[in-house]
Design a protein that fits this description.
Blueprint (H helix, E strand, L loop, with lengths): L8 H17 L3 E2 L3 H18 L13 H4 L9 H8 L7 E2 L1 H4 L15 H16 L7 E4 L5 E3 L17 E3 L2
Antiparallel strand pairs: 1-2, 3-4, 3-5
Helix pairs in contact: 1-2
C-alpha cells in the first residue's frame, strides 16, 4: 500500500496550474469555479495515493487499474459528455460556454456501464477477436465461469461439479 502523505494546498495549486495549461493547450477548459476545481483535484490526488492512479473522484473505483481504466482522468466519457452536456461527469472539464460563465454546469446522467456490463463487453470483445482462430468451440460453465475448448461441454464441470446442461457455448 502506498504511504499516505498530506496533500498540500501548494500541490493542488500546482496541479491546477499544470492541468489548466494542458487543457487550454488541447482545446479543453477546466471548470472556472476555482474552489470546486481545487477540491476535485485534491480528490484526484487522494485517489492517486489510494490506488496509484487518478480515478474519477465522482465515481466508485474498484481499486483495480485494469477495471478502472475507463474512469482514469481524463475518463473515456469526457468528450461525449462535453459534446452532449457541456461538462464531463464530475464537471472538471467544461465547454467554452461554461468556462465563459454563459452557462452553468449541471448534473448529467452516468454514461459508464455497470461493472457486469463492462466485464461482459470485455469478454465479448476477446471472444470475437479470437473466434476465428480456434479449432474447437469454447464452452462456459454458467455456474462458475469455467471455460474449456472442446467439441462438446464436459459431462461435469471440474471446478463446481455442475452438470453438462449448465454449460453454454461461449465462442
Amino acid at each position: 500500500m502506498n504511504k499516505k502523505t498530506e496533500i498540500t494546498d501548494a500541490a493542488v495549486d500546482a496541479l491546477l496550474d499544470r492541468l489548466g495549461r494542458e487543457a487550454e493547450g488541447s482545446g479543453y477548459h477546466l471548470n472556472p469555479d476555482r474552489e470546486f476545481t481545487r477540491e476535485l483535484l485534491r480528490s484526484l490526488l487522494v485517489n492517486e495515493q489510494r490506488y496509484g492512479y487518478w480515478a474519477c473522484p465522482c465515481r466508485l473505483a474498484a481499486g483495480d487499474k485494469a477495471e478502472d481504466l475507463d474512469i482514469i482522468c481524463p475518463c473515456d466519457y469526457r468528450d461525449a459528455d462535453l459534446n452532449e452536456f457541456g461538462s464531463c461527469f464530475c464537471a472538471l472539464y467544461v465547454s467554452q460556454e461554461i468556462a465563459d460563465g454563459k452557462k452553468q454546469a449541471a448534473s448529467i446522467p452516468e454514461r459508464r456501464p455497470a461493472a457486469a456490463e463492462r466485464r461482459a463487453a470485455k469478454a465479448d470483445a476477446v471472444a470475437h477477436a479470437i473466434a476465428g482462430k480456434l479449432a474447437q468451440p469454447v464452452w462456459r460453465c454458467k455456474v462458475c465461469g469455467y471455460l474449456c475448448a472442446r467439441e462438446e461441454p464436459p459431462g461435469v464441470c471440474p471446478i463446481c461439479k455442475a452438470k453438462k446442461d449448465r454449460f453454454e457455448r461461449f465462442i
